[in-house]
Write a structure and sequence with these properties.
globular; two-stranded antiparallel ribbon; Sortase, Chain: A; 9-stranded mixed beta sheet
Length: 236
């Protein structure tokens, strides 16, 4: 596979570049369920639905009309503020206080020979897709971790219980920290994964995707049938 699509020197979209990376949803972060009594928590149904932009009311100006000021003149267009953007620097640790995640030594993940994203070999560590944006750069940075193992819960066991507004901190190699706020958490079937929603263009923002397995556990395959994805954006 080749480079991630770049926008002005910053990698802005994963989906447009490596379709086979999205086999991650079928082959990545697969962990054989441990023999505990509690299943990993799942996202609230309300959070799984994407936010919907309200339709304009009948009193709203039409798309072709130009707003005018009190003086009758058309105001100058405002400069869009897409939020903070950081330069590239690899992640070294991840903290999500609300679900008890505090992991150091984030590993780089690439693709295997079949085009699937490699999973961390250590169930106690998270991995970052090293061919995509670093956390804080423009675009969707991707961090994944196992949900569990045969011996018990893994790093992202409680990812499904993460709530909107929760904070996520990613310490970076250059000494800086990228701080994110969670927008929503959703569960998707691996068989019908919304590629562009998860890995597509972030519309000018630096964003983060946290990914693990979820849903029902298929004993016949040893895989979970769904993926849980947390969407977050950079705040500082």
């Amino acid at each position: 596979m080749s480079d991630i699509t770049k926008f002005g020197g910053r990698r802005g979209s994963i989906a447009a570049a490596v379709t086979v990376v999205l086999l991650v949803v079928g082959g990545f972060l697969v962990a054989k369920s441990f023999s505990g009594t509690d299943a990993p928590p799942q996202p609230d149904a309300a959070q799984s639905a994407p936010s919907v932009t309200p339709a304009p009311s009948s009193s709203s100006p039409s798309p072709t009309s130009s707003p005018t000021s009190a003086t009758g003149k058309t105001p100058a267009p405002s400069t869009a503020d897409f939020g903070p953007i950081m330069g590239p620097s690899a992640p070294v640790s991840l903290k999500i206080p609300s679900i008890g995640v505090d992991t150091k030594g984030i590993v780089d993940l690439g693709l295997d020979k079949s085009g699937k994203l490699q999973a961390p070999t250590d169930f106690g560590r998270a991995g970052w897709y090293a061919n995509g944006p670093t956390p804080g750069e423009f675009g969707p940075a991707v961090i994944g971790a196992h949900v569990d193992s045969k011996s018990g819960p893994a790093v992202f066991y409680r990812l499904g219980s993460l709530k909107k507004g929760a904070t996520v901190s990613v310490a970076r190699k250059d000494g800086s920290t990228a701080r994110f706020v969670v927008d929503r958490v959703a569960r998707y079937s691996k068989a019908d994964f919304p590629t562009m929603t998860v890995y597509g263009d972030t519309k000018g923002r630096a964003e983060l995707r946290l990914i693990t397995c979820g849903g029902a556990f298929d004993q016949s395959t040893g895989h979970y049938v769904d993926n849980i994805v947390a969407f977050a954006h950079l705040t500082s």
